[in-house]
Design brief:
Blueprint lengths: L5 H12 L4 E3 L2 E9 L2 E6 L2 E2 L7 E6 H9 L2 E8 L3 E6 H4 L16 E6 L3 E4 L6 E2 L3 E2 L3
Parallel strand pairs: 3-6, 4-6
Antiparallel strand pairs: 1-2, 2-3, 5-8, 6-7, 7-11, 8-9, 9-10
């Protein structure tokens, strides 16, 4: 199964928010723009499905900082099976605390597990409910 291309997400967000997005330099899954006078940041990670039935992705502190600084912060997770989960990052952010960060590489980061109907942050038992959008080509 394929993962939706990030250009689909960028195009969809541009239409929904009546804006133009451009790639943030050296951040291949991060985009920024302005919608109705408000700064908008889009982050669109991808994941394959794993045998446990979920996908996962990491967000670095730099990516989280960019999302935090925006008036409108959208996390659009692209998952195998042509699923895209559009999430208001400001709401999901409430589940992320510094003590849950991982330090196994040069960047401090958080790990997110994405299930069919919810996202969990590694180290937090709370579930963030979501619904996918499906795309057919």
């Amino acid at each position: 199964m394929s993962i939706p291309d990030k250009n689909i997400v960028v195009s969809t967000v541009c239409k929904r928010y009546n804006c133009s997005l451009s790639n943030i330099i050296r951040k291949k899954i991060m985009y920024h723009g302005v919608s109705n006078g408000k700064s908008l940041v889009l982050c669109t990670p991808e994941s394959r499905l794993h045998p446990q039935g979920h996908g996962w992705f990491d967000l670095t502190t730099k990516q989280v900082d960019l999302l935090d600084d925006a008036d409108i912060a959208i996390l659009a997770v692209r998952l195998e099976g042509y699923k895209i989960y559009y999430v208001n990052f400001k709401q999901l952010r409430q589940l992320i605390t510094p003590d849950m960060s991982l330090n196994y590489s040069e960047d401090e980061k958080w790990r997110f597990y994405i299930w069919e109907k919810y996202i969990k942050v590694r180290g937090n038992d709370m579930k963030f409910d979501i619904e996918p959008e499906f795309f057919t080509f």
